[in-house]
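TEACHING EXERCISE
Course module: macromolecular assemblies
Task: Read the component lines below, then compare them to the predicted structure of the full complex.
Student: A.B.
Group: 4
Components provided:
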Amino acid sequence: MPKKNTPHSSLLTPHSLLITGGAGFIGANFVHYWIKNYPDVQVTVLDALTYAGNKANLAPVENHPKFRFVHGDIRHYALVLNLLLDQEIDTIVHFAAESHVDRSIHGPDAFVETNIVGTHTLLKAAKAAWLDTPSAAMNTQTSALGPQPSPYRFHHISTDEVYGSLSPEDPGFCETTAYAPNSPYAASKAASDFLVRAYYKTYGMPMTISNCSNNYGPYQHPEKLIPLLTLNCLEHKPLPIYGDGLNIRDWLYVEDHCRGIDLILKKGRIGETYNIGGNCEKTNLEVVHTVCAILDELKPLSSSTALFTSYSSLLTHVKDRAGHDRRYAIDASKISKELAYMPIETFESGMQKTVQWYLEHPEWCKNVMGENYKKWLAQNYS
Ligand code: NAD
Ligand code: TDX
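Instructor-supplied answer key:
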């Protein structure tokens, strides 16, 4: 069994992590972050390698002695339970999800399956492995020193989209904001958050949840806004902006998200939700102009090959997304006060690093822009 934390400690010290969805954008960044900072902790990635999952995202760590990749589905109960027991997993960081709002509009079923049924399967397996055993009763016993801290943690990665849409004058979403999801994606994430909460209240599952704003950075699939804009610029293709482009997102560099999760794992209070945001609200028009300005510097257009002088000439307004949320903003004062969390990257520095990363990884880009991707573009933008 995993080593226990000392009775006085309120801190979790993970010894063996299961990272679901670790071949996706944020999951892969978290794996890199974790192995760099805690190279002695066992890391197992469970990922179904859907269109969004990519083993190449994990290439830099594939030979690390503490890293193991398992190709499988979180809905497969026996597989998950065996992994938890065989690898003596004490900490689950649950990223695996169908995560693209536009895809949830075209086909919501997969979102219900993975985000709701998949999360429930993980919870059931964690309960069986961690709570329904004779030694679990010992772990939760109250001694003269007070309740023993749990050696386990189920950390669920969620999103600000569960809170719905803000008007311009509203304060940012805080942890007590009522849920009002508007897309099938957001509704399925909201349902999964409620299941995690219910397993805590009903069975004592030692859980935490983080609801984060829009991430950007390396390894993000080019169906999402920032890589889509970057790669379309490089191919001199139109930059599709939904509606008037004045929808607002609160952008966070992905490594800052990873640091927030790390803090919650180690110091977060069981049963609590923490909102993580970048305090960085931008309209989509501001985002597109930022990408174009960076590329105008890093990869200037040559007058002999292009009919325009700035990439921003490619900006094209297209039909709006159905049910498009107008504004998201996070009030991150809880994690900032309780866990001393602050994002490090500014929008300017993070965007510079991100665009540079796509320029330096043409092979990665070529591989994710295959037939499936082209099919998606035809379906979504026709
Ligand atoms: P992503 O789509 O890039 O990656 C998802 C990963 O999950 C992929 O590797 C995919 O193969 C895997 N997966 C999907 N279904 C699976 C299944 N049934 N079994 C096992 N693996 C499966 O997503 P992302 O952008 O990295 O987001 C990760 C998590 O963070 C999601 O839960 C998402 O809701 C949340 N989130 C994302 C953002 C963002 O801006 N991207 C912001 C806040 C929260
Ligand atoms: O072609 C596009 N044109 C456009 O104007 C695309 C793909 C997007 N957009 C707009 C829609 C949004 O207002 O850009 C904004 C960002 O879009 P996405 O990158 O698709 O992200 P979003 O819908 O905000 O959701 C993301 O953030 C929250 C993630 O995909 C979710 O997983 C996360 O929960």
